Amino acid sequence: MTSKPPAVPGPLPQPPVQFPGPGSPPGAVDALLGSDGFAEAMPQLLLCLLERRYLTDFDPTRWTVKPPSADGSRPLLHEIRALGRPPAETGWAAAVPHVLTACHSGGHLLSVAVHGDGIRHRIHWGGRRLAGTSRGSTEDFLQSQAGVLRAHVPGLELGPADSFEEGTHADLAAFVRTAPALALITGIPAPVHGRSPAAFQSLDRLAAAVGARRYAVVVAAEPLSAGELDRTLDHCRRLRSEIHALVRHTVGNQQGETSSTSTTEAAGSEPGLSTCLTAIAVFCSLAGIFPAVRPLATAAPSVLQLASIAGGPRNTSQTKGVSTLRSHNAELLDATAEACEKLLQQHIDRLETARAQGWWRTAVYLAAESEGALESLAGALRGTCSGEATALDPLRVLRLPPATLRTAALHGRILPLVPASGGMGHPLGPAFDALATCLTSAELAVLVGLPRGPMAGLPMPDVAEFPLSAPPPEPKAVTIGRVTDAQGGEYQQVTVSDRALNRHVFITGMTGYGKTTTAKNLLVEAYTELGVPFLVIEPAKAEYRQLAQHPALKGRLRVYGIGPDAPLPLRLNPFAPVASVPLSRHIDLLKAVFNASFPMFAGMSYVLEDAMLEVYTERGWDLHTSANELLGARPSAPDVAALTPTIRELQDKIEEVLERRAYGREVHQNLGAALRSRLGSLVVGTKGMALDTRRSVPVEDLFARPALIELRNLGDDEEKSFVMALLLCRLYEYAESRAGAAMPEGEELRHLTLIEEAHRLLRAARPPSGAETPDAQAKAVAMFTDMLAEMRAYGEGFIVADQVPTKLAPEIVKNSNVKILHRLVAADDRAVVAATVNLTEQQSRHLATLPPGEAVVHDERIGSAVLARMRPPEPLAVRVQGAAGAPAEADRAYLHRHGGCRRCPAPCTVLHLADRDRARAAADQALSPFFDRLLLGTPEQLWEAWTAWRSSVPAGSLAYCTYAQAARRRLDGLGAPDRGAEFLGRDRAARILARLGEGWLKAEHLDGSARELLSEIRADLNRTIGSRPPRELSGCATCPSRCRVLPLVAPAVQALAASVSACADRPVPLDTRLRQLDALAEEHLPHACQILSEGQSRRSLLYCMTVNATAATSRGRRPTPAMDAAVAETLAALRSETL
């Protein structure tokens, strides 16, 4: 007996499962939970819940959004005013998660805001105290937050903490309160993995996308407790276990035939839903979340045959005589349930990560100036914050009532969210009962991460890490600052030992960043702590003059300068060597000074050297022994000054040297003009007062006491470098002389010299401009750099300060032991100094961002350069006045320009008035009668001439200065400066006349003391001039009035020469010749004849006239024997008692 198997029924179309809506009676919900269709729809419900699809088309009528209360605590915020440039590879992406983890405090909500006002963008970080859970104040939380930020973000600068409505945050609050377009955004921000992901997930990208439109992004992140996190994690794990049973199940069909007929049919039912799934179902029911669900209808045909019995297992058996068995099995996959399982696993992974990093319930509020701006802002935020994990909960923009959003944003609140039809919370826990997203710290970092690139209004300087330790101070050391870091913390003291100072210091940096303050502190510390005097050479400005008001230097610091505002006038004769220094070496140094300061063309230096040698030798100096026989064993300072050459005398000597060298006319003119113009610029105006002088400031006042030399009134750089080079040479000579007198043991620091703007003297080599020019200048600079290195052995330490290291000779930077580097912006400058202290590239770039008062310090004891905050300048109690820097006890004898200045009550204070051309001519004319009668006139005649002049000039210093200068000019006219004895004799005579001028300016009448003084002066002048006459001519030795008549004769010698010579050549009787000479005197010397009208005085006049005129004629032609005989006869007659 056979039987046919029944036809397998195909799948029947089934209508969608209909879910009861919100507010349905409990019985309807229970019936739903027990239906087969709901079991099949459960994965879809769970997926909607995990992905929060109910927010995609958010229906406010189905939900209750509770507005936040306006009372309670409000956020306190810091504005980020600056932060360091982030690493090139990752930016701040790796640092911000650590900051957030450290800020994950159970007691404070994290508040971050970004505000753009169309011009600049501001970033604010802060927090708000959570009532009932906080264990500390908000100020403590902000302090901790700032510390963590600074630890992870070098170069961070935060503004003061203010509430949302105050300070720099007031603009942000005002904008949020009035913005027309507001929204809230939910979803998971996630990092993008791959090549340079951080470059595209940064606030600077957001700011650039929004552009000039006004906007604000306010983030409120509430830290969730570990217990809350653990409960959510356990819940997700149970859900995953339960949903796993719905992912796959197997259906089968067996048919068999036997001789007997029997049918067995069994049907199974779905197991009951778990508690977790039941809660999900209830929540979805209350919230109205019901996706359309149909049974499986798209399987393969063989599977479709089994789908009709998919509700449970069914077995049918028929037995006949012939047994046949057929079996059909199929595994059904619920892809939705599988997706739920994977989604749950990803959430579990996030929660496990959150256990280590922190779990935040985060709300993000957007505000913009218009709807278009809001769309742009939301799109930019989605673009910068979307990553792989964002698919778990995509970023969605929600629109709610503006008042609700404003209050929440302004007060840092998170909006609660529950179904409108019931009070049941989210199945995953209370953390999800809000219009917010639960994020890990890494995810939150994507949202609140710091900018990687530039943002308008936010400085981002390069910041580097430096060592945070410095060697302990030595017994003899000065403190210059403290070790600091990029966050502003201060640590150990940074000290410099006396040995390090003796090996020189290099300070560099831009103007206004602390270079001068550092140098001042070094000088003051060395003087007060080590007792080391110093010299400052300041080519520009007058900043170091303030040191005169320092308590340790007040009344001790001497400030020298050029110009009328100098406390002490600078006098510096380049030709005055330091005692015990060989003269030949001084000349070599002086030649190097000219080569280093002025451009020298081919041949100029040789002419200059010859001229320098001659101005020394013609004054009696022996270049081999460096002695002058005219001075004796113990010469006085005035005598040495009288025989010391000056720049003007060097200038006058140039033409003689060129004539002797016999150059071609064009070469002669070019060399002469070039040299005279260079030297001429040094003898005019205030420069001439300082440099064209016989005396110099005593070296002990410059180098044995604290001293400052200001050169700001010299406008030309070449002239500044000339004076600086002169000072350096004098220092070198003094240090060598000092060391010879008492050589210290080892390298003992004895003096410090600070050279500001050292490139004026120690400049780097210039490009060649000629065949010989660069060699001379480079050679001179090399000599000076060698001098600096050599003076270390003499206990001379140098502080070289300059703004531009590339302008300096490389040896200066290389050979300095201590290097203090303030802010440098130029790449070439940074490269030079970074190579010498072994800075990394990042540290080198950090030099361009150093704030005022910070510097990178390196010396031999500091292995790696440290970042130091230098000591601030000490406040001065008294403002610097004009008299500061001129101690009362300072010796001003160095201001004497010649012997006549010896008795001056106020040296060089009125010289500029007495030395004017008109004043000189008037004084010479007015004092001529007085000087004419000085040696041979009666006291009454002299007093009459004196009072006539005295009545024409003001009393005081000007009267003395006018007299002394006129007396010196009168002495200079007595004879040509051919020998050193003449220079010395005239200067001594000027000193004698100074006594007369001082005494008679005080006298009111020609009393006995005035007469006695005149008698002494005449005797001293006769001895001085007579013993060493200005000119020793044939006949001078037997002169009856040796050199007393010469002042009257000297002005007319050239005019008388030809006439006297002709008279001597005529064969006439002696008495006729004498009458002819007397007539010549009346014609050419009427004033002298009036004074010397009769007797021996008249014969002395004719005698001196004949001797000088004959000598002047003999220079042009050789005299004949007859002329010599006639002259001898005439002189003999004039010497006799009667004619």
TrEMBL record:
<dbReference type="InterPro" id="IPR027417">
    <property type="entry name" value="P-loop_NTPase"/>
</dbReference>
<feature type="region of interest" description="Disordered">
    <location>
        <begin position="1"/>
        <end position="28"/>
    </location>
</feature>
<feature type="domain" description="Helicase HerA central">
    <location>
        <begin position="479"/>
        <end position="661"/>
    </location>
</feature>
<dbReference type="Pfam" id="PF01935">
    <property type="entry name" value="DUF87"/>
</dbReference>
<protein>
    <recommendedName>
        <fullName>Helicase HerA central domain-containing protein</fullName>
    </recommendedName>
</protein>
<dbReference type="InterPro" id="IPR002789">
    <property type="entry name" value="HerA_central"/>
</dbReference>
<feature type="compositionally biased region" description="Pro residues">
    <location>
        <begin position="1"/>
        <end position="25"/>
    </location>
</feature>
<dbReference type="InterPro" id="IPR051162">
    <property type="entry name" value="T4SS_component"/>
</dbReference>
